[in-house]
Design goal:
This protein is of the alpha/beta class. It has 31 helices and 21 strands. The two termini are 54 Å apart.
Length: 844
């Protein structure tokens, strides 16, 4: 049974349903029986083992394709080729594993290692037991500072104050009571007589009976919910689409080429030679360095984020973060400081000093203790005092108090100073102005207008009354309290925006990232904060989770397109909102509480702060060690840089590989020998990919960072195919020029021309503009490695190693000059076509 089934029952009815007694608790035999029935009070939370982290580095169609090509090469005796392919796979997996394993280790180090304990009463005897040994029906004793060990229906409370932020998202502490509610409730924030596993006791003492343990607690249900939710990286989906296209292209082309060769009677080439040649062609067209390049890029991004106190758990989330179009966040602690402060005052009289001083005298925790109060209002009042006022508090002595009661909405304290007694009452202004006989109707109307103004600003208000107590003695009643109210004034409080919030929101807007607030907090407060932060242009444009549930599916989609603030939302409502947004957008979510875990699991990118619950951290991709939206925006920029560099590699390698693939494949149908030997094809791939690795270090222009972008496999394939055709035509030009020189000469010059073409095309495709008008210059690493590959390509055929190992002919400098002219013309035509394409066809 959930908390809603117990909250409206009387104490006797609750105990009867749980077969328990109060205050004596369960018997030992009942405990054993219930432990067998319900099991341990645990929510399983296991770290990801190292071998799983290693294996998930290979979950890619590209890796599967490379692995198959490596096995075929090995079976056909091409041991060197197979070794190179497997080396690529191993390096890629190792880099990804090292980064993600370090992150997993960092996550585990953030967890608390102490095992929780609980004070229980069994057979009328109090004892301290492991929280995991609790069973439904156990009577639990709770005190200030405790973490609630299970879901508990309260039976007896004294000055009991609870922080439920981690579960409900409500940023203000909650006063609990033991009386039954009038009717069943379904939302945790309405459960005034129930405390939930994982929440914190701020003040007071209580006794209650356990109503749910383990996965049957509210936290447990959320944990179960997130483990059943599966997610695939948007980055991985897009890469898989591209790889599937390449696989089908390769299969069709190879079968066509082999089929034609099979029907050509050519005794100079065996069918085995053609198979090896086809495998080499296949390896040549596959951008086998893509996993390595993207892993380098992602690792670089993760390293930069780590320097900004960000732990990246899932490496591909770096790039996914750059692609998000909507960022959903709770307001508390990310947009705001999560700390109340005095914003304004309505002063009626100052007979006893400032309102903050009068209100601070009523803080029970300051008397006889050396600890700071833990009530948010109390902390704000103390912070508003000057040093002299703080010293004056020591002159007052506590006598008695009547704690806060939700039904009368106020609390009071009787204190003494210099043999004079004073009664301080604090509470709801709307209630207290009705009890102050000194107010006229005009006075009350003026106060209500001020309260309305503060409410629109999302501020909470507290009326403070201080009056000299003439009756004397140490006892007073609620009736005495009501007849001795003389309001000194009203204080308004606000949870201030972080200093960087507005600038971060503005930057997010510039980057095309829409911010959406999902909070368990009050709708008026949420709307005011979002308006103040420029997240919404209307503070009243807020919808509650309850009202959202009443909408049809179509109405929900419309609401999500125009509303940026959702208040009083439950975990399941957050989850639903994320899923509906994902129909149109890539969504990131920043949370910290247990109530955020389902939404974190559903989001394309999930982020939490360091103080997040273990469940939230387990569901996350990225952990912020500093709770700041600005860090996320920095991560978005870094993700977009990673995306653009990966996209540059894909475009560059596909257009050059497509050109070589088609040229060599169909040239083999024209001449009676292979236009390039398998070992030469693989060397082309190795030397041209060498500088490609450095793309992860390239500089990215600001214009490429302004909008969220995703891999559009159609656009990538179209531009690669168009420019690949141009590359093919120039390859055929070289074929026509050098074919008459014989087999070895053609293979040598085609080898040189293929690599040089790929090297210069990299400098073209890295920008959509004419190469010399690019907003950023190539990185030094690209320039150095490209120069090294350029020199190696020209020099190798002159060496004995090139001629003996790779069967090159000795080239002439005049023919190399011709190659350079052809490569230059290829570059110029590619530049013209590229600029036209991006200006008139693909304008994104």
């Amino acid at each position: 049974m959930g908390f809603s089934k117990f909250s409206h029952l009387s104490q006797d009815e609750v105990l009867e349903k749980l077969s328990s007694g109060f205050p004596e608790g369960l018997s030992d035999s009942q405990v054993k029986q219930k432990q067998n029935e319900y099991g341990l009070n645990e929510i399983k939370d296991t770290a990801t083992p190292w071998w799983k982290i290693f294996l998930r580095q290979s979950k890619s169609s590209f890796i599967y394709l490379l692995f198959a090509a490596g096995i075929l090469s090995f079976l056909l005796g091409e041991r060197v080729d197979a070794t190179l392919i497997f080396l690529f796979i191993f390096i890629n997996a190792s880099i990804g594993f090292i980064q993600e394993y370090r992150s997993e280790t960092a996550v585990q180090s953030l967890k608390k290692f102490t095992e929780g304990r609980a004070k229980v009463r069994r057979e009328s005897k109090e004892s301290l037991i492991l929280s995991s040994d609790l069973v439904p029906g156990d009577v639990v004793i709770l005190e200030t500072g405790d973490i609630v060990p299970a879901d508990i229906r309260l039976l007896d409370v004294s000055h009991f104050l609870v922080d439920e932020t981690i579960l409900t998202g409500e940023s203000i502490q909650v006063t609990k009571k033991s009386q039954k509610l009038d009717q069943p409730i379904s939302e945790p924030y309405k459960a005034e007589n129930v405390v939930f596993k994982g929440t914190s006791i701020l003040n007071g003492k209580a006794e209650g009976v356990v109503i749910a343990t383990g996965r049957e607690t509210e936290i447990g249900k959320i944990s179960k919910f997130i483990t059943e939710t599966k997610r695939e990286s948007a980055f991985q989906k897009n890469i898989d689409r591209i790889s599937k296209f390449i696989i089908w292209l390769v299969i069709v082309t190879i079968f066509v080429v082999l089929g034609i060769h099979y029907f050509i009677d050519d005794s100079t080439r065996s069918f085995i030679d053609l198979i090896v040649f086809s495998i080499a062609l296949t390896v040549g067209v596959i951008p086998e360095a893509l996993p390595l390049v993207t892993t380098f890029s992602l690792s670089k991004g993760a390293k930069i984020l780590a320097e900004q106190n960000v732990v990246v758990k899932r490496l591909t989330s770096v790039e996914d973060l750059g692609s998000i179009q909507v960022l959903c966040t709770d307001k508390t602690g990310t947009i705001t400081e999560n700390k109340l402060s005095v914003s304004d005052t309505y002063v009626i009289n100052s007979d006893f000093g400032s309102l903050a001083f009068s209100g601070s005298i009523a803080i029970r925790d300051i008397y006889g203790k050396e600890v700071q109060p833990n009530n948010a209002f109390d902390l704000a009042l103390i912070a508003a005092l000057d040093e002299e006022e703080k010293n004056q508090l020591n002159a007052f002595h506590f006598i008695n108090e009547i704690p806060f009661d939700p039904s009368r909405r106020r609390s009071s304290v009787l204190v003494e100073k210099d043999e004079n007694q004073f009664l301080i009452v604090r509470g709801s202004p709307e209630e207290m102005i009705l009890l102050d006989p000194s107010f006229s109707e005009d006075d009350r109307l003026s106060i209500l207008q001020w309260l309305q103004q503060q409410g629109k600003l999302g501020r909470r208000t507290l009326a403070i009354s201080m009056k000299k107590w003439e009756k004397g003695g140490e006892e007073y009643s609620v009736e005495d309290e009501e007849t001795n109210i003389k309001i000194s004034g009203i204080v308004s409080f606000s949870d201030q925006l972080k200093p960087t919030t507005r600038s971060v929101v503005e930057q997010a807007n510039e980057l095309g990232v829409r911010l959406v607030v999902l909070t368990g907090d009050d709708p008026i407060v949420a709307g005011a904060v979002a308006y103040d932060a420029n997240i919404t242009d209307n503070r009243e444009n807020v919808i509650t989770g309850e009202n959202f549930d009443k909408l049809s599916l179509g109405e929900k989609r419309v609401e999500l397109s125009r509303t940026n603030v959702y208040a009083r939302v439950s975990p399941k409502q957050k989850y639903e909102i994320i899923q509906l947004l994902q129909e149109e957008y890539l969504v990131g979510f920043l949370g910290e509480g247990i109530n955020d875990a389902p939404a974190l699991k559903a989001a394309n990118v999930s982020l939490v702060v360091e103080s997040a619950s273990d469940i939230a951290r387990e569901a996350s991709d990225i952990i912020l060690l500093k709770s700041d939206l600005g860090t996320i925006i920095d991560g978005v920029i870094q993700g977009r840089k990673t995306f653009y560099n990966s996209l540059t590699y894909i475009r560059a390698t596909l257009l050059s590989n497509f050109g070589n693939f088609f040229a060599v494949a169909f040239a083999s149908l024209i001449i009676p020998y292979l236009p390039m030997l398998p070992v030469q094809l693989l060397l082309v791939n190795l030397l041209s990919d060498f500088p490609m690795f450095s793309i992860s270090t390239d500089n990215v222009g600001k214009e490429e960072l302004l909008r969220p972008k995703q891999y559009d496999s159609r656009d990538i394939i179209v531009i690669a195919s168009i420019l690949g055709v141009i590359s093919t035509l120039f390859d055929f030009a070289m074929f026509g020029i050098f074919q008459r020189l014989g087999e070895a000469q053609l293979q040598t010059y085609w080898f040189i021309g293929s690599i040089l073409s790929e090297l210069v095309l990299l400098f073209s495709i890295r920008t959509k503009k004419i190469f010399f008008k690019a907003s950023t210059r190539p990185s030094n690493t690209i320039i150095i490695l490209s120069s090294f590959a350029f020199v190696t390509t020209i020099a190798l055929p002159f060496t004995s190693i090139g001629q003996s190992w790779f069967h090159f002919a000795h080239p002439t400098w005049s023919n190399i000059g011709i190659i350079l002219i052809v490569v230059l013309l290829d570059f110029i035509v590619t530049e013209i076509v590229k600029v036209v394409y991006f200006k008139y066809i693909d304008k994104d």
